């Protein structure tokens, strides 16, 4: 993530957007359960909200500096921060009641690696568990935020089939002018 993008994702403005629109829109009607996985929390503005919605939250973050900062900041809470790659999750099969991803999938370097991430999330979810989240819709403005950064936007028309191939069923993808919201069950 480039410095400007990281600065924005750490901002109070972003935290307000996450709390008012992104998380409520993505999770309306979703039963999270008591053991939730968050994939790619970055600076943790989503984690700050999600930790109040479940008994136990595991946040897996690939960036070592972001993982350490989040681990220190949330020490003593119901959040376990794990430095790790979501394309090779270090968790047992069928552990989590749900898994969540908020505006980070476009940072995964290729569609093939995104598919590995999807398959790993399906593997660690309990039967009936839900994978839900949001990613940004591709646009020139969106691309402009990702100069010198990894940016592999999701194709909303292909996403349902990709999730099914990863092991999900009951896939639902909604698109609005700004984001792609998805839900899928194992």
Structural description of this entry:
It contains seven helices and seven strands; from the N terminus they run ααβαβαββαβααββ. The protein has 186 residues and is an alpha/beta fold. Strands 3-2-1-4-5-7-6 form a seven-stranded mixed β-sheet, with helices on both faces. The N and C termini lie far apart (30 Å). The model has no long low-confidence stretch (mean pLDDT 93).
What is the ordering of alpha helices and beta strands? Answer: HHEHEHEEHEHHEE
| Number of helical segments with 4 or more residues | 7
Q: What characteristic shape results from the CA principal axes?
A: globular
Supply Rg. 15 Å
Query: What would you call the structural class?
Result: alpha/beta
Number of E strands:
7
* Major sheet attributes: 7 strands, mixed
Strand order of the largest sheet: 3-2-1-4-5-7-6
User: What is the helical fraction, as a range of percent?
Assistant: 25-40%
Instruction: State the separation between the terminal residues, measured CA to CA.
Output: 30 Å
Mean pLDDT: 93
Strand residues, percent:
25-35%
- Enumerate the spans where pLDDT stays under 50 for 5 or more consecutive residues: none
Architecture blueprint of SSEs:
Blueprint: H1 3-9, H2 12-27, E1 35-39, H3 45-50, E2 56-61, H4 64-73, E3 79-83, E4 96-102, H5 111-124, E5 125-136, H6 140-144, H7 159-165, E6 169-175, E7 179-185
Parallel strand pairs: 1-2, 1-4, 2-3, 4-5
Antiparallel strand pairs: 5-7, 6-7
Provide a quick synopsis of the model.
This protein has helices at 3-9, 12-27, 45-50, 64-73, 111-124, 140-144, 159-165, and strands spanning 35-39, 56-61, 79-83, 96-102, 125-136, 169-175, 179-185. By secondary structure, it is α/β, with parallel strands linked by helices.
